[in-house]
Amino acid sequence: MKMKQMKQQLELSKCCLLFGTSLLASCMFAISPSRAATFAFSEGSLTFTGFSKNPSGTSTDFNEFVRAISKDGSVIATANGDVNFTVVPPQASSISSSSASGNNGDYLGQAKSDTTLLGSFLVEENQVFSFDFETLFNLKTSIDNSAKESANTFGDTFWQLVDTSDNSVLEFFSITGNLATEGDNDFLDIQSSNNIVFNSLSQDIASGGKKESAVAVVKGSLRHSFTKQTRLSLIGINTNRTEVKVPESSNAMIFLLSSGILGILIKRKQEDKATIL
């Protein structure tokens, strides 16, 4: 991952909560299924090209977290990401993905990944700032036994153009989606500001069963005119969360905690001022 120190600092915070139920919220006796399989996947990407101005500075950041806990079963959780912002030629790309899968026994698998890119621009009086962008968004879940298994996935891919003099958002675009299998909290939502022109936009969500999916592909462009000199920050963020689990009995949970099997934590932070909470 290439890193460039930005000249104009902008502190960004974004808080995403996907799974509000704690592992210790309830203790119950459950019979482990002999053949249980679950899968959850979340992926988002952003690509920016055709900038009318070169950035005066750039910054990128990537964070990931995975947890895998299992008793008499198997579970895998992975999180990946890559983010770049180059000055010459001016272009940026960001991709983030998280997946979790489990089979047999009692288990919990969680994966979280976040990528952030930031570019600073100075636009003179009576100039137009413009660029092209492309977004890919993909969520998938599947389970075998709805009585004992759950698979959840969340994604949020967005960008915004900010006037740094007062931190006001001038333009924005976002895709947000969630799948809860089985459950009724499924949605896919696309929002944007008025100055964005879409060259192509497709979206589809298939929910209500043991296998669910949500997909969106968007290509568009932005042109924004300025009547005075303005300093801008373009911020792009991908956030992806997945979770699969089969309920554990109270005895199994006590065994896991006492044995110190608390999962795997991986976290990478880059040297920049952007922060994800």
Observed structural traits:
six-stranded antiparallel sheet; 277 residues; mainly beta
Q: What class would the helix/strand composition place it in?
A: mainly beta
What share of the residues lie within helices?
under 10%
- Report how far apart the termini are: 21 Å
The helix count comes to 1
| Extended strand count | 12
The fraction of residues in strands falls at: over 45%
What integer value in Å does the Rg equal? 21 Å
What's the overall geometry? elongated
Report on the biggest sheet. Answer: 6 strands, antiparallel
Which ranges are low-confidence, i.e. pLDDT below 50, for 5 or more consecutive residues?
Answer: 1-36, 249-277
Q: What is the topological layout?
A:
Elements: E1 37-49, E2 57-71, E3 74-86, E4 91-103, E5 106-123, E6 127-143, E7 150-163, E8 168-181, E9 187-192, E10 196-206, E11 211-226, E12 230-246, H1 250-258
How would you portray this structure in words?
The protein is mainly β and 277 residues long. It has one domain (37-258). The protein contains one helix and twelve strands; from the N terminus they run E-E-E-E-E-E-E-E-E-E-E-E-H. It has one helix spanning 250-258; strands at 37-49, 57-71, 74-86, 91-103, 106-123, 127-143, 150-163, 168-181, 187-192, 196-206, 211-226, 230-246. It has a six-stranded antiparallel beta sheet, with no helix packed on it. Strand 10 and strand 11 (211-226) form a beta hairpin.
Summarize the structure.
The protein is mainly beta and 277 residues long. The chain has one helix and twelve strands. The longest helix is centred in the last third of the chain and has 9 residues.
